[in-house]
Every structure is written in C-alpha cells, then in structure tokens.
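Trying the structure run again after the queue cleared.
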Amino acid sequence: MTVSPMSVYALTKTRFREGVWEGLLTASRKDAPPPEITVSLNGAPVRGVTVAQAGEPGRWVVEIPIPIEAVGDGVQTFLIQDASCGETLDSFTLIAGEALGDDIRAEMSLLRAELDMLKRAFRNHCRETG
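Done. Tokens:
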C-alpha cells in the first residue's frame, strides 16, 4: 500500500488477473470526493481505467486493463496517480521475455555464490569448534 503525502487517498493492490490489475482505493476522509485517477505507461495514458464505488463511503475499486502494447519482451512500469494533485499513489511492473531470463539467471548466480560462501564459513566454523 502506498500513501501519498498530499493525496487523501491510499491505494492497495487486491489482485492481478486475466490482464486486469485491481486495487482498493481508500480515502482518509469518508466525505472525500470521488477520485480522479490517471494511469500512464511510458508517459502515455492507459485507456479503459475504471473507478467504481466499493459499497462503503470513501472506498473505490480501481481496475486497470493491461494494453496489448505492454505485453512483450522487457520491463513495463505503470504509474497510478491522483490527478487532482499529481501525486503517485502506486505503481506496478510487468517483466517478460529476455529481460526476465537475464534477471533470473543473474539472481541464481548470486544465490549460488552466497550459498558457496555460507558453506565455506560453516565448514571453517566446524573445524574451529570441533
């Protein structure tokens, strides 16, 4: 959950399924006006974003459809902002293709190196205390 210092809204992701990111937007005041949310990808607006009352005053469901141009190799970051003050409420990132493969291989290599270091330290500890 991200709370903006100037915004009266806090946004919490609830799920990401079937190409739609969903979140619950909560106002700090029950009498807050309906929010105006903007979502951008690479500086361009994302179309089809919906904000619907969630049954209680001061709560709304935000749905962001993932545009087809965002699906592919690389890293795509979506910014969700309160349009009334320009503050970023949250963001999410999609990673796919080769960028993901390189990242996972690098992470596995780092984990292997750390595991080898821990094994050496453990063996040294056993030799010194045994």
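The chain has a mean pLDDT of 88. Worth checking whether this holds up in the mutant runs.
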